[in-house]
Design goal:
With about 170 residues, the chain is α/β, with parallel strands linked by helices. The chain has one domain (about 5-165): Maf protein. Helix content is about 50%, strand content about 20%. It has 6 helices and 5 strands; from the N terminus they run αβαβαααβββα. The chain has helices spanning about 5-20, 35-40, 55-65, 70-75, 80-95, 140-165, and strands spanning about 25, 50-55, 95-105, 120-125, 130-135. Helix 2 links the parallel strand 1 and strand 2 (about 50-55). The model has no long low-confidence stretch (mean pLDDT about 95). This is CinA family protein.
């Protein structure tokens, strides 16, 4: 775990402890890495309910309620898919917030439209979902680390926006 992700996780934990909100994860290309970083902070069981590692499209559809039409029209690696993964995770895991990741971590699997390193991440609650697209290919491990860090950054940004609106 990098210093950056450890710091982000601690700040996120403090927000969720203070506000009493719950969190879930829906991960594809990061394969549970976001969940591992979040649960590395002692006391995370007070707010983190669980996650789904949804590598296959069938899992995205059946467990996270991503629409088949979305996957066919936009693909698993798309902004639309991660938004639906966030909403599906909140619904099926009964949480206030969720994060999602889907992408091509590499080294293979890329296409001309979605080369290796293309990763969509999202963080959301019932009112808002923030998304970001990563496009740099630094190798599989670094791609996963970058997606994990960006997901945590988005979640913290969303939490800070919520706090400022209260």
């Amino acid at each position: 775990m990098s210093v950056e992700t450890k710091t982000l996780s601690k700040l996120i934990s403090e927000y969720f402890w203070k506000e009493g909100f719950t969190l879930s994860t829906a991960e594809s290309c990061t394969a549970g890495n976001v969940a591992a970083i979040i649960t590395a902070v002692p006391g995370s069981s007070r707010f983190y309910k669980g996650g789904v590692v949804a590598y296959a499209n069938e899992v995205k559809e059946e467990l996270l309620h991503v629409k088949k039409e979305t996957l066919e029209a936009k693909g698993a690696v798309s902004e639309e898919t991660v938004v639906e993964m966030v909403n599906g995770a909140m619904e099926v895991l009964h949480t206030d917030y969720a994060v999602a990741t889907s992408g091509v971590a590499g080294p293979g699997g890329g296409t001309p439209d979605k080369p290796v390193g293309t990763i969509w991440v999202a963080a959301g609650n019932k009112e808002k979902v923030l998304t970001a697209k990563l496009t740099d290919d630094e190798g599989r491990d670094k791609n996963i680390q970058a997606a994990t860090a960006k997901t945590l950054q988005l979640l913290l940004e969303l939490c800070q926006k919520q706090e400022n609106e209260e």
